[in-house]
Amino acid sequence: MPKRRRDGEVISTKETTRCLLHQQIASLPLSLEPGRPLIAVEKVSYVYPDGRRALEDIDLTVQEGDRIALVGQNGSGKTTLAKVLNGLYTPRRGRVCYAGGLLEGDHLLRARTEIGLFFQDPDDHLFCNTVYEDVAFGPLNQGWDPQEVDRRVREAVEHVGLEAFLYKPAHHLSYGQRKRAAFAAVLAMKPRVLILDEPTANLDPRQEAVFVELLKKFHGTLIVISHDLLFLYGLCSRAVVLEHGRIHHDYTLEALVAHPPSLREHGLDFSFRFSCCGIHEPGRIEPSADSGNAQESGSPEGRSSRGAEVSPLIQLKDFAYRYPDGTWGVRGIDLSVHAGEKLALVGENGAGKSTLAACLLGLRLGRGTYRFDGKPVDEKRRKRLWRHIGMVFQDSSDQLFCPSCREEVAFGPRQMGLAAAEVDRRTREALARVGLEGFEDRAPHRLSGGERKRLAIAAVLGMHPRVLILDEPTSGLDPRSEERLLEILRELRVTLVVISHDVHFLSLLCERTVVMHGGRIIRDGPMDAFLNDEHLDSLNGLAYTYKSECRRRILRLQESAFPAAG
């Protein structure tokens, strides 16, 4: 008798037979001869269609059960190598073997069922109507019957702690929740090898700790791409360092972190982050030089030292926004931002930071009072806010869509109706400001993560905004790129609103901190007061508690390797 799916659709006998056949094949892992590597990469090179060489003469072996940290600067070839290992990219030269067979033909199809690839952006995984359907997509395409699919979905969703969101649309979840939903979608396919690209990007430290525990429970082979060596130290035992598309080092992770000169050589020196990890030590983190301005004003509402008589550039009173499903994004918001301020907007994933930013930009129409430059923002003015307020999104690829960097930066000024000569002048000026001279004809999607971030900033700066909002600007950046970004932002003479979980970065840039929790502002004051508020730090998922022990162990390693001169 024909079976029925959960939605009532009849499953034919032929389809049932096909499902059973796929199950029998998929349930048997590809055999591996004793002593042979699970993955073997031999003399692999990869060149993108535009001629850019991404990988050159890569030799790499991965044994079953290895836990590898794949590290290197932005643009070193890490993500490209991950896609080669998964079979998404075919090498121009060399070969990749998995479980003793070349990644081609039927063997490639089988290998893809065993090699899970977790992208940096969770939305690359989430495209169905509900979380249930997103997680079920992989097992369904592996050929499992509906009962087994249902079992796998519920098991994976429970594993990541999202049972309450099973039938919600993924786009209604917070970023951290979407990240876990995407991870569940990969886990439901029962991968033998798990490759993760920046798994903790844009997550608050509490969510990072959740991911650490999830990955510790994974008993297969693990390859993790990340710039966060504190995160990797508690998870991986081996480090593969890429530089300009080549493997520069392949040794233990302990050997890498114990040698600061090597870290500096490869742009991976993270020692400047030690001051903001772990136990609160007042005075260890120095706020930016400008942070005294907010302190002198003594105003909880963040009036700048320019004087209380100056009207705020942005003013919200009893402001709220509610999503179509009835969920409150933000509510009861009272906020004033003065021209020239550098404001940090912090809070755990789902606190309402990105929603508030979208409202400030005019992308979402809320209720309550919103004034910009002293004038009420009605429906007509809301649609013109883009001329005055620019935003760089978490994923800079969301706002890069033109064929060249020149066209990308010129797009905004052209939409403003400026003359061709002025558009050209602004384009050249903006690219130079972010250090991308000579990139005019490069394709944006071929740039490294750090270069794309700078291009997105240039595209906004070309419109000469009065306010610049940045959502997780350091996400996915190597330490060297972070420092360059910090220099660029410090030099800008615009009002800055920076959303981030990167407390150290914020402390070097911003003078004032607005803390959000549950869609509300719960604190608004000077940066140095925030840095020394241990209770507030823990409440909002901004404490680096799980990294504290990693930090101590690394410092001990470095002290042993390079003892202080007696």
From TrEMBL:
CDD domains: ABC_cobalt_CbiO_domain1. It holds the Pfam family ABC_tran. SUPFAM superfamilies: P-loop containing nucleoside triphosphate hydrolases. Its main location: membrane. PROSITE patterns: ABC_TRANSPORTER_1, ABC_TRANSPORTER_2. It is found in: Cell membrane. It comes from the Bacteria. GO terms for molecular function: ATP binding; ATP hydrolysis activity; ATPase-coupled transmembrane transporter activity. Residues 284-308 are annotated as: Disordered. Keywords: ATP-binding, Cell membrane, Membrane, Nucleotide-binding, Translocase, Transport. Residues 39-269, 314-543 form the ABC transporter domain. Residues 296-307 have a biased composition (Low complexity). Transmembrane segments: none annotated. Gene3D superfamilies: P-loop containing nucleotide triphosphate hydrolases (3.40.50.300). One of its GO terms (cellular component) is ATP-binding cassette (ABC) transporter complex. PANTHER family: ENERGY-COUPLING FACTOR TRANSPORTER ATP-BINDING PROTEIN ECFA1, HEAVY METAL TRANSPORTER. Belongs to the ABC transporter superfamily. This is ABC transporter ATP-binding protein. It comes from Desulfoglaeba alkanexedens ALDC.
